[in-house]
Amino acid sequence: MTLHRRTLLAAGSGLALALPALRTAAAQAPLRFCLDWALQGNHGMFALADDRGVFRANGIALRMDRGFGSGDTTVKLASGAYDIGYTDVSTMVKFNAENPDKRLVSIYQVLDRTAASLITLKRSGITDPKGVAGKRIGAPEGEGSRMLFPAFARVAGIEASGVRWTSMAANLRDTMLAQGQVDAVTGFLFTTYFNLVGLGMKEDDIVAWPYAENGLDIYGSAVVARADWLEKNPEVAAAFVKSSIAGLKLLLAEPDAAMASLKKREPLFDEALEKRRWAMTRDRSILTPNVRANGTGAIDTARAETLIRVNAEAYGVTNPPKVADMFTERFLPPASERKIG
Fold first, then answer.
1. For residue 242, what is the domain's CATH number?
2. DSSP letters along 192-255, please?
3. Do 135 and 206 belong to one domain?
């Protein structure tokens, strides 16, 4: 259900043209690339590849900027402010339905599993996901993990109608959990977990149920670009994906070097903490059974359909995009070059 669907995914998105020869670095204009957030450990795949000359060797002069949330990155890509971005693909379902002329496409699915999670502390007394019924869950209004909670509740057997939601600003969510103002929160595991550690919570006291490991197995963040930009720049897109995969292999092999590469770009970057965040990202969202079997970036149509369906339900989208209009394997190198782990 993965690689043999390559032709379907490419044809449906109108990107089935043969790839021209890669441009030389001298002929390549700087490529504008926007991350999803401030520099974190998993971003080392791009930073180290840039420092080692991988992007330049593949004809790309990379300009990488931090992001301010996946939703913001999605909007900036659509506006043309950036050529390629790294963003959570769930943000694209509603956006693509409302903006078909600025449709975004996932060209390399980096996180094979979403980091969206239900997270609590042992003192709450919640020992399984069903235990949040009747409890106070905190999350910002409109936050992705909160919007997907009803779908997670269905597969996890949670009585969602009994949950009492408390809304707050994103920067207060984890503090309110630590202070006991809410019983649990929804959010990205890699963010909330280490925020709680930073607030003095003991790691043994943090309890989390990632959606993808508990019945709602959908994709996370990916390298994405506008469909019309891809039609005009297929060789650049392929070169970027090839460079990113090489960067992921470097990050897996040399995490300390990758953290140092990120530190060069942000003096306040905490190398020790981010190396741990990277390890969690690697183990929970990158080196999954699907990736080990089919290589990084392989798309399973059924899982992609589930992602589109649950996001359409969450956001009231009546005209959801088709899988082939939102995902493509067209720009991936052969499976033999995508084996990791």
1. 3.40.190.10
2. HHHHHHHTT--GGGEEEEEGGGTT-----EEEEEEHHHHHH-HHHHHHHHHHHHHHHHHHHH-H
3. yes
Domain region containing 12: 3-113+218-337
> How would you label 65-91 residue by residue, b for 16+ Cβ within 10 Å and e otherwise?
eebebbbbbbbbbbeeebbbbbbbbbb
Please give the pLDDT value at position 27.
55
Segment 135-164, tens digit of pLDDT: 999 999 989 999 999 999 999 999 988 899
User: Which pLDDT value is given to residue 24?
Assistant: 45
d(CA 85, CA 295): 21
Domain count, the chain: 2
Domain boundary among 186, 213, 240: 213
Do residues 99 and 224 share a domain? yes
In the sheet that holds 184-188, the strands lie side by side as 164-166, 136-138, 184-188, 116-121, 206-210
Identify whether residues 109 and 222 lie together within a single domain.
Answer: yes
| Residues 309, 222 share a domain | yes
CB-CB contact of 135 with 124 (8 Å): yes
pLDDT digits (tens, 9 = 90+) for 57-112: 999 999 999 999 999 999 999 999 999 999 999 999 999 999 999 999 999 999 99
Condensed to tens digits (0 to 9), the pLDDT of residues 58-68 reads 999 999 999 99
Tokens of 290: 């699907």
